[in-house]
Amino acid sequence: FRSKLAAMILEKPSLEFLSKDLNCLYLGASSGTTISHLSDIVYNGVIYGVEFAERSMRQLIQNSEKRKNIIPILADANFPESYANSIFTPIDLVYQDIAQPNQAEIAIENCNYYLKDNGTLILAIKSQSIDSVQKSEKIYIQEKRIIEKAGYVIIDSINIHNFAANHIILTVQK
């Protein structure tokens, strides 16, 4: 299953916070599959798609050139200040799907920098990218603690194992 956003919607279809007018920061945009789905949902908003890999960025640009609300940004999500000059609207939603051991910290840094008060973070956690030896449940607890310690509130934890092994999605409020 390619899109964790689609998996989340299939598991929990009543996601009221996803509206057509949201401005989004998408961390880990990759080649553009999920960001194109998000583009269809938030068609009146703007999505800033941050991607680090040049090859994926080329594909993202090709896949999003007909979509007026996607702005591809070649940058490292570890350094949110490095792409501040490319973001022109307040951010209502941060969506993160990156396979990094410090993905919770990256999400927090970006939310602290860009996310409006009462904004939402959607964080896809792949336990095997954080620690391939530990049990997934232990990793999920650890990542939730990092988010809560930073002052964020976890609204929901959605198990998407039916679509993506060793994954959960957290919806978080600032």
Can you tell me the CATH class? Alpha Beta
**Share of residues in helices:** 25-40%
- Give the number of helices: 6
Taking all Cα atoms into account, the compactness measure Rg is 15 Å
Q: Give the overall shape.
A: globular
| Strand/helix succession | HEHEHEEHEHHEE
Strand % is 25-35%
Mean pLDDT: 90
Q: Quick one: CATH superfamily? A: Vaccinia Virus protein VP39
Q: Ranges with pLDDT <50 over ≥5 residues?
A: none
Short précis:
It contains six helices and seven strands.
Search tags:
174 residues; alpha/beta; Rossmann fold; seven-stranded mixed beta sheet; 6 helices; 7 strands; rRNA processing; rRNA methyltransferase activity
Structure, explained:
With 174 residues, this protein is α/β, with parallel strands linked by helices. It is 33% helix and 26% strand. It has one domain (4-9, 21-173): Rossmann fold (3-Layer(aba) Sandwich). It contains six helices and seven strands, in the order H-E-H-E-H-E-E-H-E-H-H-E-E. It has a seven-stranded mixed sheet with strand order 3-2-1-4-5-7-6, sandwiched between helices. Strand 1, helix 2 (33-41) and strand 2 form a beta-alpha-beta unit. It is globular and about 40 Å long. The model has no long low-confidence stretch (mean pLDDT 90).
Topology of this protein?
Layout: H1 4-11, E1 24-27, H2 33-41, E2 47-51, H3 54-64, E3 70-74, E4 91-96, H4 103-114, E5 115-126, H5 127-130, H6 136-149, E6 153-159, E7 167-173
Parallel strand pairs: 1-2, 1-4, 2-3, 4-5
Antiparallel strand pairs: 5-7, 6-7
